[in-house]
Design brief:
Length: about 350
């Protein structure tokens, strides 16, 4: 397994991480992802460690905390062999302070995650979303205190806009506070909005990208095909899951899959492996979070590393997945001498 620097820090992470959204299946939404219990989760962790995949990503809202609890059981007795990343900010209860990035909620959320995970520290703690109601200074002071106390090693954020992230970085620099080194963002061959602003920002500010849903919310698994019915075992069968997923037209997905199919014939790799390998060659990408309902899916995802698409194959996928960006990015791209493409 290749290891990469996470942003401008000295922290190294594996190119692939295992997402634990499939652990538990605590409600209708998460059941569409997976229902791994402790035994199955432990087996998946075993396979990951054998392959050199040592980082496991979770969140306090995954199956109401069950995912963290199951992960904690699955790594019991081998905490020193793994890296844990988890997230907080989203609602965890009915109370007025059971959500957000306030000092109150983040402190409670971190303590609760530590208990569920059965550990005394979290290697990478990320805000699951931006909280516009809490002052950025309060958020960063709270995270800085948690870092200084040893409960968190590094901090990151997720689903921030460019100005959210840049404002936070500026305040960290101004006050000498712990700095976000990672941005967990959606990025895939059928969702390239990340490239418009967040990727140039990440290059400039040395932010490592932790990619969620790299297969376009399950659309790039090879199960979605023109004129074919969906199999029963896919989250694409869940209306609830689909409604919450990234928007993309079926025609755009089919266009990308057509290009992937051509490369699959050249390489002997699967749709999934090609889609993941394309991401591994993109600027700023530090680690890609892969999910797995079972051992078969996990082993297929692990097959995305150890080889590279050719420049010609990358160019073919770039062309098939290209879309017109929103303003002002389409305008800026008209002046490549002033705004070169990220490298």
């Amino acid at each position: 397994m290749e290891y990469r620097q996470l942003g401008g820090s000295g922290f190294k992470v594996p190119a692939l991480s295992l997402g634990t959204g499939t652990f538990g299946g605590g409600n209708e939404f998460f059941k569409s992802w997976g229902t791994s219990d402790v035994a199955e989760a432990t087996r998946l962790v075993d396979i990951c460690l054998e392959a050199g995949l040592t980082m496991f990503d979770s969140a306090d809202v995954y199956s109401g905390g069950m995912a963290e609890e199951i992960l904690g059981q699955a790594i019991k007795g081998r905490r020193n062999q793994v890296l844990i990343s988890t997230k907080g900010t989203f609602r965890t209860g009915p109370g007025p302070n059971d959500l957000g990035s306030s000092r109150f909620h983040l402190t409670e959320a971190v303590e609760a995650s530590l208990r569920r995970l059965g550990t005394d520290h979290i290697d990478l703690y990320q805000l699951h979303g931006f909280d516009a109601r809490t002052p950025v200074e309060e958020v960063l002071l709270t995270l800085d205190n948690l870092v200084r106390s040893g409960k968190i090693r590094y901090i990151g954020c997720s689903n921030f806009s460019g100005w959210h992230l840049m404002k936070s970085l500026s305040i960290s620099q101004m006050h000498g506070l712990a700095r976000y080194i990672a941005h967990q963002a959606y990025y895939s061959l059928v969702g390239r909005d990340y490239e418009w602003e967040l990727m140039p920002l990440a290059i400039d500010q040395k932010i490592g990208s932790v990619i969620w849903s790299p297969l376009g919310w399950g659309k790039l698994t090879g199960k979605l095909r023109r004129g074919q019915a969906l199999p029963e075992t896919t989250r694409l069968q869940s209306k609830l899951s689909n409604d919450k997923g990234p928007p993309v037209s079926n025609e755009q997905v089919f266009k990308v899959i057509d290009a992937i199919d051509g490369i699959a014939k050249e390489t002997g790799k699967t749709v999934t492996q090609i889609a993941l390998n394309w991401l591994l060659q993109r600027p700023t990408v530090s680690t890609i979070i892969v999910g797995a309902r079972n051992e078969e899916q996990l082993r297929q995802n692990l097959g995305a590393v150890g080889w590279n698409l050719t420049p010609a194959q990358v160019a073919k996928l770039d062309a098939a997945s290209a879309t017109t960006p929103a303003y002002p990015y389409w305008h800026q791209r008209g002046f490549p001498e002033l705004n070169p493409a990220p490298v």
